């Protein structure tokens, strides 16, 4: 379904979100106070305007409240990011996603009404940290402080050519296999208990971080 998005701040983060939304055929209004940035997005976004988002009258005249989703992607200027999030909330925008620079900023954005607070640098750091310190984990996404979704490659003979049931996977690791990636093109979603696991299969698992780390260790 086509939705309308307004992105405030066209730095690396806001800019990437804008390009991705346009690729998915969504309607995007791109806003930045810097004219050069706006010019860059003139032919990318559905509309692009130069405006200072801290000015409430400007936000009203842009009809911000009519958008399905507002993304506050202002970088360094934490005060502006908080104020804009607050104003978008007060205008009744149904969904607000805001980018945080640090933990304090994240807490304030949450308090003033952001539905989702993203912390790209921190999240990417955590993902990369996990990838770098493990041999078999290909990717790692935090779902909450304790739970995550991870991709682990099967490199232990004990797993080869045995079914999920035979390995007693769930009882043993207390993780759920949501999908198995096999080779380049095959994706087995929600595999049944009698699903055979092969060498170099990639298991997409959800569960507690401790259990994900345990599984990763067992692959060595
Ligand atoms: P990133 O880390 O995503 O690259 P930047 O700090 O480079 O973030 O980008 C943030 C963008 O937000 C800049 O292009 C800046 O001009 C814009 N911006 C900052 N304050 C405002 C504001 N009050 N109104 C509109 N745009 C703003």
UniProtKB/TrEMBL annotation:
One of its GO terms (biological process) is potassium ion transport. GO terms for molecular function: monoatomic cation transmembrane transporter activity. Residues 2-118 form the RCK N-terminal domain. InterPro entries: NAD(P)-bd_dom_sf (IPR036291), RCK_C (IPR006037), RCK_C_sf (IPR036721), RCK_N (IPR003148), Trk_Ktr_HKT_K-transport (IPR050721). Residues 135-220 form the RCK C-terminal domain. This is Potassium transporter Trk. It comes from Vagococcus carniphilus.
